[in-house]
Amino acid sequence: MTDILFIIQARMGSERLPGKVLRPLGEQTILDIIVSRVRQSAYYEGKRDNLIIATSDSEADDILEEHCRGKQYRVHRGSEQRVLDRFAEVIERVKPSVAVRLTGDNPFVDPSLLDMMITAHVKEKADYTYVSNTPLGIGGEAVNASLLTDISADKTLADKYQEHVTLYVRDCPERYRLLFPEPPENLRAPHLRLTVDAEEDYQLACALYEKAGARPDVPAKELIRLLNSHPELAVINKMIRQKEAD
């Protein structure tokens, strides 16, 4: 099996919703639910725990590190602004073949979708893989780990490429093999927004999670079905727009 490392990028600072990663969702925090869902992936290896929380060295994230330590999550702290360097440090420490980038604002990340993405990435020998046309917030990105360390070593790299970890790879399709597989039909809903970046997103997440029975393992396909059958939920965050670089 290819050596996979899940890296969850998380911090307490946020322009629109500070502290969101430790906000409650049901009886857990958003971060705890993300971890539990990633651990449902067929590529998660509990024995060696191939999942790391990558947070910043800002004082504001001391509480996040404390939470992670208390939950016995592996955690790494690095630059707040140079996020790519933070990832490169994790990769140099663990030395995986493939890094799966996840973010701390996606409590409904779907393990079956992650499995599909990683399998396609390895099978097709891609440099970067992202599953298109799903709700925003249920997926991740697979990227060959050595690419991130190589790119990070370029000291002339523009700030936007440091802030947005995989943006340089995506901006260079002539240099890298990019793969964008289509999802199964029951996960095809690009009009839906299941990330938590604003207060309205959080309100939807709470309402949807409760409607789904507050189950950390609820499949994304069921959440999509619930949103389609309860339009009053889907409109809660309908007006929120994602930042372009994200």
UniProtKB/TrEMBL annotation:
GO terms for cellular component: cytosol. The keyword Metal-binding does not apply. InterPro entries: Cytidylyl_trans, Nucleotide-diphossugar_trans. Pfam families: CTP_transf_3. Keywords: Capsid protein, Virion. This is Spore coat protein. It comes from Bacillus nakamurai.
